[in-house]
Amino acid sequence: MKELLLKYMDQYTSLAEAEQQAVINDIVIESFSKGANLLKQGDKANKQCFFVLEGCVRQYYLDIEGNEITANFYTEEQAILLSSPNEVDRYSRYTYTCLEDCVLVVADLDSEQEMYAKYSELAVMTRRMMEKDLRAAQNEFTAFIQSSPEERYKMVLRNRPDLIKRVPQYQFASYLGITPESLSRIKKRLHNESS
């Protein structure tokens, strides 16, 4: 797992090898079992943040009718920020659940600040990573809301093809904003077109 972190640091920083090793030695890596909740909707938000090294985490909420609405799936090399510093005293609007056994880098906003003070290049890395993720999220959101359900499905097939095999159909359908039956019809239609 630490090799993946080294690769990631090489991509976004110019830290020397010794500094990279020191950062990795300070990082907390934890394993979470499938079904573990990182945070539940309605719980007090905390200062934790995560980086997925291995596994899949689902972000969802219950609507007023009690339906689970999937907001996102986080997989390898994606960061999960449970709250921002100004939201720590609020209650979470989402539940974050491990859909698979997961290996995550675990940090909190305070220890992150200490790491930035110790390794200024790490702050640059985080900023670059967040800028890239924000741009991607903005582009994905814009494309998503302008698309039909079928186009959304095709977009996920192009951008995150492994996701379809990793998550339950009903959760994936919720993520697309459709019913599981509609997803089945889309998949069947696309299969018939490609045959």
Specify Rg, calculated over alpha carbons.
18 Å
Number of domains: 2
Specify the biggest β-sheet. Answer: 4 strands, antiparallel
**CATH homologous superfamily name of the largest domain?**
Jelly Rolls
| Unreliable sequence segments | none
Measured as a percent range, the helix fraction is 40-55%
Structural shape: globular
Q: What CATH architecture label of the largest domain applies?
A: Sandwich
Q: State the secondary-structure class.
A: alpha+beta
Tally of DSSP helical segments: 8
Structure in a nutshell:
Keywords: Activator. The chain is of the alpha+beta class and 195 residues long.
Detailed description of the structure:
The protein is an alpha+beta fold and 195 residues long. It contains eight helices and eight strands. The strands form two sheets. Strands 1-8-3-6 form a four-stranded antiparallel beta sheet. A four-stranded antiparallel beta sheet has the order 2-7-4-5.
List the helices and strands and how they pair.
Blueprint: H1 2-12, H2 17-26, E1 28-32, E2 37-39, E3 48-54, E4 57-62, E5 68-74, E6 79-81, E7 95-98, E8 102-108, H3 109-118, H4 120-145, H5 149-159, H6 163-166, H7 169-176, H8 180-194
Antiparallel strand pairs: 1-8, 2-7, 3-6, 3-8, 4-5, 4-7
Comma- or semicolon-separated keywords:
single chain; 195 residues; alpha+beta; Jelly Rolls; 2 domains; 4-stranded antiparallel β-sheet; 8 helices; 8 strands; cNMP-bd_dom_sf; RmlC-like_jellyroll
